[in-house]
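Please fill in the sequence for the structure shown.

STRUCTURE ENCODING:
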């Protein structure tokens, strides 16, 4: 499940740091993407 979510957020498998209002939410997903 985590890998599937990270693929949606980070299809390239790279860490995507968001600096927007949803930074916290995207950052969590990006971190999981890195772990994948």
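FILLED IN BY: designer on duty
SEQUENCE:
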């Amino acid at each position: 499940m985590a890998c599937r979510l990270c693929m949606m957020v980070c299809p390239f498998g790279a860490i995507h740091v968001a600096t927007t209002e949803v930074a916290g939410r995207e950052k969590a997903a990006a971190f999981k993407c890195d772990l994948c």
